[in-house]
Amino acid sequence: MNEFEFCIIASGLDPKSQDFEQRFYDAGCDDATISFQKGHIIVDFTREARSIDHAIVSAVRDVEAAGARVDRIEPDPLVSLSDIAARTGMSRAAMTQYSKGQRGRDFPAPIARVTSDSPLWDWAAVARWLFQNDKIDRETVIEAAALRAANAAIEAHETRLQQVLQRCLRSCEKSLGKKAA
Question: Each residue of 52-64: pLDDT tens digit?
Fold first, then answer.
């Protein structure tokens, strides 16, 4: 079993209700910290599971069993250069150089706020590039792909989350091949 850390951002329950936290505990979220911030329920998991897809699917099931609606899963799939540096343990300066093509070629283009001073990148695409350039490990790429696929499925109200994630992970693992960081 491995441990996976992620947050489920949810809504639909009254945080002032006396049984607010107990509902999550009773539903199986005993491996999570429950809070309410900025109008959202935050269910911060450290979940043991055999794989990231099992961790995500079981956590989503448990949050929904508590009566909440799952809005998304974090860490956020959109990242700034500072976020990338923090997730990888590399410096912000190195990330800036990668993004400008000064330290490597073909760094992914930003996908949001492209014309602003603080563009955002797709973490799964950046993680894949970093893996291909021997900067991060394979599991980080797989987890990034799983979180992106889970969020897309949640946004699309997909009812077969397990199957969506399994397809995503098979495709990701196949595309990564045997290369190890």
Answer: 999 999 999 999 9
